[in-house]
Structures are given as C-alpha cells and as structure tokens.
Design brief:
Layout lengths: L1 H40 L17 E6 L5 E7 L7 E6 L10 H4 L7 E6 L13 H17 L7 E6 L1 H9 L7 E5 L5 H8 L5 H4 L17 E6 L7 H10 L4 E6 L10 H13 L2
Parallel strand pairs: 3-4, 3-5, 5-6, 6-7, 7-8
Antiparallel strand pairs: 1-2, 2-4
Helix pairs in contact: 3-4
Length: 278
C-alpha cells in the first residue's frame, strides 16, 4: 500500500512539474512578446529593393515634426493648383527606395506627390510608435499646406501599415480622397490571426484601430486588396469597405498577394479614382 502511494505521489509531482514548466514557458513568451513587440511590428532595415531606377524627378526634403524629428521625404511637384497631390504613407518595412516601382507610375499621372519615410526608417532618427507615426503623417500634411497645397487637393494614400495612419489623419477632414492599399481593420485583429494563443489586446501597445475610425472619414475612399494576401487577410479589406462612408470604391483582385501588382488594371483604377475627384 505504501509503495502504491509513493508511486502515485511521484506521478503527481511529475505532472505538476510539467504543468509548471509549461506555465513558465508561456509566461516567458508573454514577457518577451510584450518587450520586443515593436521589433516584430516595425522593420526599418528590411530591404526588398532590387535596384529600380527612379524615373520621376523628386526633390529630397526634410519635414520636421513637433517633437523635432526630421523626416526624409521625396517631393514631386507638377502643378499644385491644377493637380491633386498624393501623400504616400508606406508600410512597416523598408526604405523609400522600396517604393520606386510604385511612384514611377505617378510620372504619367496628372498628380504631384510627397512620400515620407517614418521616424526610424531611411536613416531618420527616432523610434516608430503608433503615436509617433500619427505625428509624422500630420507633419507631412502641415508641410504640404506650407507649400501652398490646399487640404481639399490632398489625396492620402496608405499602404499596409500606412493605412492605419491614413485612417487616423483622414478623420473629420476635407481631403480630396483616401486610398487604402491592403488595409487591416485593427492591429488587434491582425495580431490575433498571427498569434491566436496570446492575449493580444492586453499585450499590444500600438493598436491602430482603423475599423473604429473609418466611419469618421467623409472623403471619397478607394480600397484595394488582393484575395491571396497572406499577411493582412482579405476579409479585413472587405470589412473596411463595408464600414466606409459613401462615396466609396473598391479594387479587389483574385491573385494579388500583400504587395499588390501595379499592373494595367490597378493603374487604371487609380487614374479613374483620381480623375473622379476633380
């Protein structure tokens, strides 16, 4: 009887040891994720630039934020009174050079454009945070206005993470239009798709809750998303379209992944949307 008792006790102790090990490992994952989460979200040194030649003329400018960070930016000016001006807000990875293949296409459109690099990106000082990037976006709008560009002539174009900033700064404004490429509903929902085993809402510092903000945008909206997006699920783009106020337009494709193909169909959609704003 004593032998069986000891045997059962050993089994119980082993079970509790395994349980405590698992709890400890999970706690370690929680702490590590919380501490290093911004390294998982922002990737300023990632480079998928393949040497595209810049075919459109740009002026390199520095835009100062309220917290005294200078943002490297590229500005292309055709005619600020005659044409709309695109403010391009890029995604969570890479440099301005990574977007050359996109902005080259603006050369043949009747638009001016400004593309900014976030704090911590493209050699800029500072570290990216949700509030910091909101400040960067607002500073870019303020700079354009200082150059004589009227608010109702500005088109805010957000790419991936940039859609979170575009949605934030587009609220209750009189911008000419808002373009959201591969948008997410919120970083909370996006995080849950990647880390379903974590309490994302509790851990997340930068939430980017665009789904709660898009209802405050009264400018015309164009939403573009590929159904094969393996980073931001396509249903999020659909949801953002459903939540958007009219006038609203969509360009949903069967075969595009997260970084959409700037093909003839997409470019026609962009041109048609821009022309509709005149």
């Amino acid at each position: 009887m004593n032998f069986l008792f000891k045997k059962n006790l050993i089994k119980m102790n082993f079970f509790y040891l395994i349980l405590l090990t698992l709890i400890g490992a999970y706690f370690f994952i929680l702490v590590t994720t919380y501490v290093y989460q911004r390294s998982l979200l922002y990737h300023p040194t990632e480079n998928n630039y393949f040497g595209d030649e810049l075919l459109v003329s740009v002026e390199k400018v520095k835009i100062k934020t309220q917290d005294n960070i200078e943002l490297l930016s590229w500005y292309h000016k055709k005619n600020i009174d005659k044409y709309k001006t695109i403010l391009f807000l890029h995604g969570n990875a890479g440099s301005l050079e990574n977007r050359i293949h996109k902005i080259n296409n603006f050369k043949n459109m009747q638009v001016n454009f400004l593309i900014i690099a976030w704090r911590g990106f493209s050699g800029n000082k500072g570290k990216p945070t949700e509030e910091g990037l909101y400040e960067d976006g607002r500073s870019a709008v303020k700079w354009l206005k200082s150059q004589g560009v009227k608010e109702n002539n500005i088109i805010i174009y957000g790419e991936s993470l940039g859609t979170g900033i575009a949605t934030e700064i587009g609220q209750n404004k009189n911008f000419a239009g808002i373009i959201l490429e591969s948008p997410f509903t919120s970083m909370i929902e996006a995080g849950k798709t990647k880390y379903p085993y974590l309490p994302v809402r509790l851990l997340l510092k930068d939430k980017y809750e665009s789904n709660n903000k898009i209802k405050n945008i009264n400018s015309p909206v164009l939403i573009m998303h590929g159904k094969l997006d393996n980073i931001v699920p396509f249903y999020m783009g659909q949801k953002m379209y459903e939540l958007a106020n009219k006038p609203k337009y969509y360009y949903f494709t069967e075969y595009d992944d997260h970084m959409m193909e700037y093909d003839e169909n997409l470019l026609k959609t962009l041109k048609d949307f821009i022309n509709s704003l005149n």
